[in-house]
Known about the structure:
Strand order of the largest sheet: 3-2-1-4
CATH topology: Rossmann fold
Radius of gyration: 12 Å
Low-confidence stretches: none
Number of domains: 1
Distance between the termini: 23 Å
Order of helices and strands: EHEEHE
Largest sheet: 4 strands, parallel
Amino acid sequence: xxxxxxxxxxxxxxGEQLIKALRLSLHKYIIVGTDITPISKGFNEVDAAHxxxxxxxxxxxxxLMKICKKHTIKALxxx
Length: 79
């Protein structure tokens, strides 16, 4: 299976719609999601979830890279 990282999965936005589309696909994906809050609605919809800093934080890219390495991410949706 291919591991995919979807950012901004807080609910009601593009991240949530991407998760739905990936789940409806004939191909099965391992979906890793990130958001800035640990109570994100989208955390219930993914296979692995991580809290990350805001995109304008100097540590944001480093955190995404750590997650990508940990889960062997092949595709990233950065919203």
